[in-house]
Amino acid sequence: MLRNTSFAVLVTGLLSLGAYQSGNPKFADRPFPVNSSVARFFLDDARPAPEETAASELAEADSVSSDLHILMLNYTAYDSMYVAKVRHLISKRLPGVTLTDFWDGSAEELDNALQGHQIVVITYPAGGSKSKVKAYGKALAQFVRQGGAVVFSGTDIFGTLQQYGLLEVDFGYYCKDLDIQETDPGHPVLRGVPSQFSMANYAYPLDISDPAFITLADVSDCPTLGYKPLGAGKVVYLGLEYYFDESASTRILENTLRWLAPPSRRNTALSTRGPADTPLLSPGALKHSEETLYAGSGRSQAAAAAFEIKIFPNPYFDKATLDLNLQRPEPVTVEMTDETGVIVAVLLPSRLLNAGLYRLDVPNLPTGVYFVKCQIGNQSTVRKVVKVSAQ
Fold first, then answer.
1. Which of 2-6, 93-97, 180-184, 215-219 has the lowest mean pLDDT?
2. Can you give the pTM of this predicted structure?
3. CB 261 within 8 A of CB 68
4. Segment among 34-43, 165-174, 239-248 with least mean pLDDT
5. Which CATH architecture has domain 19-276?
6. 186/195 Cα distance (integer angstroms)
7. For all residues of the chain together, what is the average pLDDT?
């Protein structure tokens, strides 16, 4: 009798728990995160069965080259099942990519794991050691400045985003059945997505104070999709639900990865010029007395004026900056070597850049003489840089 009574109480409690659902929006009143394993059993009415992706949407899924490498940083993910779902979506939509998982380790191990990858995907960041997440954030920031990209999927645990330090976030929440309004419908990330759409599952808007953040879609003026240029790379936030395969959110995920892929790996259909192609700084915005170095020798003045490079200050003891001004689109690679020719830093992996002014950080290396090599199109130039100790 006691056993039957206990079972009845348990069933009643679970049914009550399943009936406890969020409004539009609510804050921190869920019995468990919607991306957890247990949520699948109690939120079925709020989370419909996965939609079948239309065959037409999968027609271009094989256009990304197999040499695109994506690192899935899973340390802060709430639920391993959610990680598996996102992994499955990426593999299905972009079957040529290589996916590598990083679950735990030191910041140095993460830094090593980043080598050879172009994109990092962080799924539903929701926990982990605060100090470790901050250390990861520093490694990721360097990765992005050198031309990589980091993609955060949606989360209402905005404190974890704050710990990564890649976006200035003040607040975050979750909602459903609210319209997501595109603010830049022509952007490649939103290609093939209605200018206004709603999610059958959850969306995760943020209150972002970061002045560099560019909003692509929002809910009631709170960014839901957007990105931040950082150095030569980008930090992207996709505040959408990826526990189930919804057409709009999955298409946005695919578009984002295609857009972030290096030009040789990117679907040409996503090459439409938009805000993402805007130079980090406007041409002519900086004025200083540093000498201008034109690449090569024996070339015409018109060819020499195709680009200019400035490094300042030089010598430097703490920080230095390299400004690259392109007069036309060019593939660019920037590396730094020591006097023996050993590469000590990659300031910019090979990227196709549009015309404009780009600013790169010269790293704080040990005292010595270094050389910055810029490969621009089929031309190259080398500039000596001296790192001195502070007196």
1. 2-6
2. 0.59
3. yes
4. 34-43
5. 3-Layer(aba) Sandwich (3.40)
6. 9
7. 76
Select the more confidently predicted residue: 330 or 285. Answer: 330
Closest CA to 275 of 353, 214, 220, 232: 214
| Contact present, 373 and 360 (Cβ < 8 Å) | no
Fold that domain 301-387 belongs to in CATH: Immunoglobulin-like (2.60.40)
Domain edges within the chain: 19-276, 301-387
Q: Kindly report which listed range (200-209, 266-275, 332-341, 378-387) carries the lowest average pLDDT score.
A: 266-275
Fold match flag (19-276 vs 301-387): no
Tokens 């990858």 — which residue? 117
HSE, side-chain direction, 13 A CA sphere, residue 67: 5
The structure tokens listed for 280 are 């980090």
User: Alpha-carbon distance 142 to 347, whole Å?
Assistant: 9
Query: What token pair was written down for 301?
Result: 């003045």
User: What's the burial of 257, exposed, middle or buried (CB within 10 Å: 0-12/13-18/19+)?
Assistant: buried
Q: Which two tokens stand for residue 335?
A: 């590396």
| Statement: residue 8 has pLDDT above 60 | no
Amino acid at 44: D
